[in-house]
Amino acid sequence: MADSNKPNGNNGENDPFEELFKKLSENGFTSGNAAGGFGPQAMGIDPEDLRRMGLNIDPNMISGIFASVSSMMNAQNSDEPVNWNLARQHARQALAAGGSDPSVTQNQKSAVADATQLADLWLDPVTSFERPGYQTEAWSKAEFIENSFAVFQEIAGPIAVSMSEAMNNSMEAQMPEEIKSMLGGGGNILSGIGGMMFGMMAGQAVAQLANEAVSSTDIGLPLAEGRSALLPAGVAAFGEGLEIPTQEVMLYLAVREAALVRLYKSTPWLRDDIIDLIKRYARGIHIDIERMQSAAEGLDPMNPEAMQEAFAADIFTPQNTEDQQLALQRLETLLALVEGWVTVVAEQATKNLPASAQLAETMNRRHASGGPAEHVFASLVGLELHPKLNREAAAFWRSYGEEHGTDARDELWKAPETLPTAEELTNLDSYAQRVEIFDASDDEFDAALEKLLSGGYDEPASDDSGDSEDSSEDDTKDDDR
């Protein structure tokens, strides 16, 4: 039987962490003075006290912990749920650690300008969407971070707010009262922890995106509102091993960039719809704190590698609700429709480019193996983008354009309702029946609505019930086969 007078006794009277918190509280540690920045010595905590309590911790580590607490508290002086300055700083640091990022040369700027000019000439006959009215720039990776960060913040912001609130509420609900008292209720410091965590995650995601991106629209969404850009370093990396002249690679990617910019410029609702779907997903975020605790059992907080592995695992991933799943499905379909349209338009615009087919296949493989779009949406909302859906969307746009023409194809982007669903991508007849009503006259609309409400669409096509029954039997036999 354990001795209750020992530091690790079962009755908890001399529990080392309880003694530590008691010592902190007695010496005036609160969330308020944490923001001022101080170490254990200033708090009256002697390293010998720590060792006596069974905590063989380097005093410098404790100082580091207090410094982190102070940083988190200071970061929450604003209403922002995420320390975006930290995120930007971490993105630049992660980028610098990943290798060199030379400044864009004048020759590279000229090459981008020439490629964009030719891309626009090739696009004019194959799409009804007009040029955006601004030039495509040439960016380094660092410039990509700086120029795209505001839009990335807008995309990630709804997720950050919901994640931070869910984590704070869950953790605060299970925090002992004595610790809450010491931390001034716990809310501020938990908000600081959540904001710092998401800021680090966001910074890492932006840095990875900058390392992989070839253009400002590489995730299927313009990341610099009112601007367009190619990244010469990304273009060069895309063409590695292809044995295709760099000018051709840049021209192909310039066509894709210009096409996507035209699409978003001509359909203002599209960007808003994507952001709204992300917000809809964010509203349902909740954190299963018990699942986190169960998965984190046995972790040594003094083992940085183990802690890093825990944060990299899915123990902090929220469990999706039914409405969130619907939002993700709609988001994936919309992104696939964008990618499919760009694929088809680029295919038509670059028909005279010798390596067009090879470059298109390289882009497809990039999506399949996990490109920038796949990484960003996986890290933000856990969305897995399926290459099959991209191919189905491209097949839809190709088929529709061949049958109805370029103008009619592009006209489908006029509203969300005129776009096909994921199921309709492989069932053009079903799509055609649904959108017929958009082109109907008022009388035709009223007649179709009356027929629908009266159940007319469910009635047999023939008045001969016998023929209908025979037909049904034949259909059943066909289904069985």
UniProtKB/TrEMBL annotation:
Q: Which UniProt keywords apply?
A: Hydrolase
Region feature (Disordered): 453-481
Among Pfam families, the record links this protein to:
Zincin_2 (PF10103)
Could you give a GO molecular-function term held by this entry? hydrolase activity
User: Which chain regions cross the lipid bilayer?
Assistant: none
Q: Where is the signal peptide?
A: none
Which residue stretches does the UniProt record annotate as biased composition, category Acidic residues?
460-481
List the PANTHER family.
HYDROLASE, PTHR39420
Q: Which NCBIfam families match?
A: putative hydrolase
Q: What is this protein called?
A: Hydrolase
Q: Which organism is it from?
A: Rothia aerolata
